[in-house]
Amino acid sequence: MNATPSCDISVAITGSGGAGSITAGELLLGMAGSNGCFGVMRRSFGPQIRGGEAAALVRVQHQPVECMNDNFDLLLALDWRNAERFAGEIALRPDSVIIADPAAGEIPAPVRELGVDIIEVPMKALAEEVEAGRPNMVALGLLCQWLGFSPDEAGRSIDQAFRARGEVIVRGSQAAFDKGFTEPSIVAARKARPGSERQVPSWSETRWQLNGNEACGLGALRGGIRFAAAYPITPASDLLEWLSPRLEKLGGQLLQAEDELASINMVIGASFGGVPAMTATSGPGLALMLEGIGLAVASETPAVIVDVMRGGPSTGLPTKSEQTDLNMALYGMHGDAPHLVLGALDHADCILTTEWSVRLAEALQTAAVVLTDQYLAQSRALIPEPRYTLPEIPARSTAESAAEYLRYADTPSGISPMAIPGTAECTHVAEGLEHRENGRPSTAAADHARQLEKRARKLREFDFGEHWADIRGDGTTAILTWGSTTAAVREAADRLQDAGTKVKVIALRLLLPASPDRLAETLQGVDRVLIVEQSHGRQFHHYLRAHYDIDAECRTHARPGPLPITPGEIVEQFVNWS
Amino acid sequence: MEQATTAKKAIPKDYKSDYKPIWCPGCGDFAVLNAITKALAFLALPREEVALITGIGCSSRIAGFTSLYGFHGVHGRSLAVAAGLKAARPELTVLVAGGDGDGLSIGGNHFIHACRRNMNLTYIMMDNEVYGMTKGQASPTTAADWEQSKLTPHGTGIRPFKPAGLALTAGASFIARGFSGDPNGLARMLVEAISHPGFSFVQVLSPCPTFCPEQMQWKKQVRIFEETDTDDPILAAQRIQADDGMSTGIIFRQEYAVFQAQSTAGADLEPIEQEFAI
């Protein structure tokens, strides 16, 4: 590959719901891809279906990037309705630029008062010059011109996006794009800016474009999931919608359940039948499933639950991101219920973590909760083709016909042979009551102690290998994080490194069971640790305090959603810390 | 009815485990256990091909007293577990059993949706109009003026459900009412229910001698429906509404479309992976 020119541009496209800002953003990300860049696009919108606000927040870079930057280089406003709702979300710098349509009315005072350059382009009027032209496609043309993208691939992208809506729309969209791309005011404005002759990079190797929900779905399929049951909930629904037709193609199925209580129990039923099974939900749904997850643990039935976290409690912020279901996933169970909790770190990692979770749940015959969040799930990224290797994990242990079959045999590993219906001579009752080795209910102290210990031993004795955490860099300073804040932490570490501070980034992937020995080893020689999480209640910090010994001096950067934690605010934590 | 041929003729005892039921003497559920095993023996189903899924309550302990594959889950969720199992393993015969509280109160939502979904399941609801395992509280089928519970000392004041009517409205395709005092009749009814394609709901009047001793008189009150079953939901609704809940027989039978997965086996993952590549 040739020396890659650097590029790092953040663009916000805003408009009222239905104005097409999200479509324009998705196409822009696609154009970034065909122009050899990487990028990420976050969608921001309210809970309304129409008439609310919608913003596509796109960051384009010459290297893989998965977090939002601290501020935006360019804001393109299709209209100014609901603009105030984005005010806190789209931070501009004095040298940022705004593109706006004079026909969209007065620029709101708070925006005008920022004093940034405003380029006025009559997007609506330009769109009306062509049949079936829409202002958002003019906007796409303007942005491709501004970013220096080649328009060559635009036709193909537009055709792909609108083919289903007919040729008139495709032609109109293409023509509107051209109007924007060749608009003299934008060409002139770009030329007038320093560095306008930059070249876009040209990464030629295969890249993938996906969001975290799709990535989790793929990981689930790779892990062998062939049954899903679920109840719609934002922001997990699009994972389920992605999964449903693909499960069908693979001979599996997705059942829409009447509620989350049913979802988890359907998953348990299918898994009892021998088919690897999962559900996906968000906080309120996970709360309803906790009883069923306890049943999966007690009956030792493998089950995978993907929880796409959103702001809570209650209905909270259903379309916004937060890392605040951690406590529930770790501690929500009734009784002593050893189970697995894993957190995906970035888009590619959603594939790895979900596949790993499925394999672990199957091998260990227990429930695995996979945590992602709205940011990861619904942001779309252009990433290098994901490659990873999971350790060898045995498949679910099966049972052959046997005269003395014991479903809950107390084996050295704690894992018992699991006979599925259809296996002769192994009939038994999978039991949610405490039981003896043969599955018969028992309230005897010895049986309870024995089965509790067996279920704990399964997880305690299992070698989870090197994937417990993702560790990058080295130094006497470390940043500890988990989940989607990992991307911002990695970028902050790069900036600190550039400024002379070496930083080790430790992102925990396996949360339960905890790995205190491994973390202690990783933290050897580290004298200060910053803990980063998106939770007002410092749930991750409390988890670390409960399960790990950390000798270094610890500070915490914890704040709630919905705004993503950015690299800049993490770097700032070190300004007065020496 | 087709009877499978096996080398050795199946007998009801083949379907029982050696685990002694925990039920009180005189409990109607003993006879339900016998009726289930008789029906399975008549159908000569290999026991490993049958699963019995239950919830929580006295009657839900029934799975352990059989030699079938069983799943004894949490309170009210047996129909959901069964739906998952049947969807994943359609070749299995899946029976579901439990009580009136399990199925109509905490599991009420699953009940109406199971009726509506019409998967090929047989649901046996042992109705004794009381929560026995928690020591005698009113259930959704308890009479409004039943004053024997400390929890509702003045009665619930709430009219009870008519389970058959609920099932009919929710779209069940087979609805019957049996009585534990007639285990042979119940066994014949269960054979019909298991053989019916779709969701079969069998309400079984199964007295609780401990908390509702008055139910020991049910044997004098039950009667057989004068009419045979109908496929007309309006007629069925009339019969259910006109009845005092003590008539037994198959009430409604209709071949609604049976729920099944639309999956097409054989594709592999590679083309799905390639959807992401640019």
How would you characterize the largest beta sheet of chain B?
A: 8 strands, mixed
What would you call the quaternary organization? heterodimer
CATH topology of the largest domain in chain A: Pyruvate-ferredoxin Oxidoreductase, domain 3
Helix content of chain A: 25-40%
Largest interface: A-B, 65 and 50 residues
Give the C-alpha Rg of chain A.
26 Å
Q: What do the pLDDT scores of chain B average to?
A: 95
Note the gap between the termini of chain B: 58 Å
Total domains of chain B, how many?
Answer: 1
Structure description:
The complex is a heterodimer of chains A (578) and B (278). Chain A has four domains: 8-204, Pyruvate-ferredoxin oxidoreductase, PFOR, domain III (Pyruvate-ferredoxin Oxidoreductase, domain 3), CATH 3.40.920; 210-384, 3-Layer(aba) Sandwich (Rossmann fold), CATH 3.40.50; 397-463, no CATH class; 466-572, Rossmann fold, CATH 3.40.50.920. Chain A is 36% helix and 21% strand. Chain A has 20 helices and 21 strands. In chain A, the strands form three sheets. An eight-stranded mixed β-sheet of chain A has the order 6-5-4-1-3-2-14-7. In chain A, strands 9-8-10-11-13-12-19 form a seven-stranded mixed β-sheet, sandwiched between helices. A five-stranded mixed β-sheet of chain A has the order 16-18-17-20-21, with helices on both faces. In chain A, α2 links the parallel β4 (72-77) and β5 (92-100). With 278 residues, chain B is an alpha/beta fold. Chain B has one domain (23-141, 156-274): Rossmann fold (3-Layer(aba) Sandwich), CATH 3.40.50.970. In chain B, α8 (233-242) links the parallel β9 (223-224) and β10. The mean pLDDT of chain B is 95. Chains A and B meet through α1, β7, α9, α10 and α11 of A and β2, α2 and α4 of B.
